[in-house]
Amino acid sequence: MWKQILRKIPRKSQKQDRDSSRIPYGGSKIPSPGLGSSPANAAKRAATVIVVIEPLLAFKDVPSSEKMSLFISKLSLCCVVFDFTDPATNIQEKELKQATLLELLDFVSENPPKFSEPAILASFKMCSINLFRVFPPSYRSSHTSFGENDTDDEPIFDPSWPHLQLVYDFLLKFLASGSLEAKVAKKYIDCLFISRIIELFDSGNPRERDCLKEILHRIYGKFMVHRPFIRKCVSNVFYRFVFETEKHKGVAELLEIFGSVITGFALPLKEEHKIFLLRALIPLHKPKSLAVYFNQLSFCVIQYIEKEPELASSVITGLLKYWPITNTQKEMMFLGELQEILEVINMPEFQKVMVPLFCRIRHCMNSYHFQVAERALFLWNNDQILNLIAPNRHVIFPVLFPALVLNTQSHWNQHVLNVTLNVRKTLEEMDYILASSCITSYNEEQLQADEQVEKRRKTWEHLEKVADLQPVSENTAVLVT
User: Fold this and answer.
1) Where are the residues of the annotated region Disordered (predicted)?
2) Residue 349, C-beta contacts closer than 8 angstroms, at least 6 positions apart
3) Predicted pLDDT at 334
4) Does residue 414 lie within any of the structural domains?
């Protein structure tokens, strides 16, 4: 089988046999693939003539002038695809290809000479054939995916992974190599290549996603011309995930890439970057699988606010829009992120959202789920939050104290009751007169509410008595509850 592989590589012609003294190692000259046959490309073809030599030779066995030709030959050898679902087939051929991939990986890792354009083309062709054509994302997703919302089970890796990992490692080393000129390589790392790389992030193999993360990050850093397109592609992935499928396994890795990208944004932030925050990142709080990528998402959001504090009020408004009502796990995550935002928010932005914000916190403080209530009450242990409340206490105290009084009167959990008393004491020390006034107002409101309830009860009793005195008509029955 490996002989058949070698036959697919262009061999030397009879004329080239006669010129073998000028082409060492029995090589043959072939034009670079991808060039047209028009006369306009004649000069370019002549400038990109390469030498194909025996791919089984080791790099150490050829002079430096021939190493790039050997590099291209070995890449051509690795373009042959095997079926790894049957481990009993093509064993020797698979081992030959694996050994060749290891040689290529060592070559690009050892500071090789500057890569020629045919070498760059051959490299990306080999990677594309192995990564995009042999095992498309649909194959890998169906054979290696987790169960829905099940991140604790051990993932099942597909049998081709040891082979694919070498291709990924080669691509990463190739992109990171100082011998690769970005001006030449950007012709082959095009929008199609990048979009296919991003599609592969839906793989169920976490090791594959880690490799893809490093590769996409390297592409983003090295090829500035493609940065807007990468951001657009990732935004589209998030849009489909949030508003259509809620199924994608690579959201955490994509967010991790953007966490470092956001730190490099120049100030003031471009409108495009703000739109990405408000339309892509904030809606990511909506899906049920938030816990899988929450840490990476929260980091990105905080980075935005640290870059431009004026975005804090918009972020909090977005959180309130997607605030979970019945999912207590998500509610606790929201409270944790909210605390981080309040630690970096400035006073003008805080004042824009403080009323709806503390109305939501009040509901959390009265939650029957004791962990949610505790998490909301622990906000008052933060000095920065207390510093925000103090100058705005005339607005915030009337919102908070009804919840504190209600907890002290009726909450079932003793620890929540103790924490409530501590928070109440802290706020009373801040302004005892205002706190007493809020408590008095709450008691008066409760008294009025009780009077309304009693009045309504008496009204219904009167109606029932009047109904009892009325005669029942011949064919009509009156039911009074």
Assistant:
1) 1-39
2) 309, 310, 312, 313
3) 96
4) yes
